[in-house]
Amino acid sequence: DTAVSQTPKYLVTQMGNDKSIKCEQNLGHDTMYWYKQDSKKFLKIMFSYNNKELIINETVPNRFSPKSPDKAHLNLHINSLELGDSAVYFCASSQGGRLSSYNSPLHFGNGTRLTVT
Amino acid sequence: GQSLEQPSEVTAVEGAIVQINCTYQTSGFYGLSWYQQHDGGAPTFLSYNALDGLEETGRFSSFLSRSDSYGYLLLQELQMKDSASYFCAPVGGYQKVTFGTGTKLQVIP
């Protein structure tokens, strides 16, 4: 029943480790996103994929690598985790995409709280 | 460049009206959206303005002036459950939705 689901909900790991967060949407949307929200609530876009194609790639360290095996899934792999990576990571989806000029609201997952120690 | 400004915190009394202002500077602007986020929760969509003027959805209204790069969210008949963070979020090309740090609204009895 869940529209956008991401796993795990919590992730606690040590510096230097590699971890992945998975996201799936069952809304039939074409576009999926990763956002990072820090402790000050700043919500920053990281990546966006439209039909498995990367269309937005913000200034993100290349330790972060998204992967979209199909348009319903967008995973985020993080290498060599650092303390500053601690945040809540939100996956989102929307109907709009590369050629869209109309509004399509973002539907967010419940977030993954990543803590790097 | 891109910039987004809204007050960091606002306090209002239950039953009152509160306005949260937003000024933005962004390229490829299509419209301004607003999202609500309760503590520990995910952002949820509230409204979208593509054209200048006021859009009303129940107790919430949103306004946009494209020439002034300005918008606001108006919340009427405030309820305790409205205590949350509110984000104005310009929508750009490729459906790029840009958020900032939001406005934390506290509704007091």
Description of the molecule:
The complex is a heterodimer of chains A (117) and B (109). Chain A is mainly beta and 117 residues long. Helices cover 0% and strands 54% of the residues of chain A. Chain A contains no helices and eleven strands. In chain A, the strands form two sheets. In chain A, strands 2, 4, 5, 6, 9, 10 and 11 form a seven-stranded mixed beta sheet that branches. The mean pLDDT of chain A is 92. Chain B is an all-beta fold and 109 residues long. Chain B has no helices and eleven strands. In chain B, strands 2, 4, 5, 9, 10 and 11 form a six-stranded mixed beta sheet that branches. Chain B has a five-stranded antiparallel beta sheet with strand order 1-3-8-7-6, with no helix packed on it. The radius of gyration of chain B is 13 Å and the shape is globular. The chains are: A mainly beta (117), B mainly beta (109). At the A-B interface, strand 4, strand 5 and strand 10 of A face strand 4, strand 5, strand 9 and strand 10 of B.
Summarize the structure in short.
The complex is a heterodimer of chains A (117) and B (109). Chain A is an all-beta fold and 117 residues long. Chain A is 0% helix and 54% strand.
Considering DSSP H and I runs of 4 or more, what fraction of the residues of chain A is helical? Answer: under 10%
Q: How many beta strands in the DSSP annotation of chain A?
A: 11
Tell me the strand percentage band of chain B.
over 45%
Tally the helices of chain A: 0
Q: Structural class, from helix and strand content of chain A? A: mainly beta
> What's the overall average pLDDT of chain B, rounded?
94
Total number of beta strands of chain B: 11
Q: Helix segment count of chain B?
A: 0
Radius of gyration of chain B: 13 Å
H/E element order of chain B: EEEEEEEEEEE
What oligomeric state best describes the polypeptide chains here?
heterodimer
Low-confidence stretches of chain B are: none
What are the secondary-structure elements of chain A, in order, as H or E?
EEEEEEEEEEE
User: Which structural class fits the helix and strand makeup of chain B?
Assistant: mainly beta
Helix content of chain B: under 10%
- Average the pLDDT over all residues of chain A and give the rounded result: 92
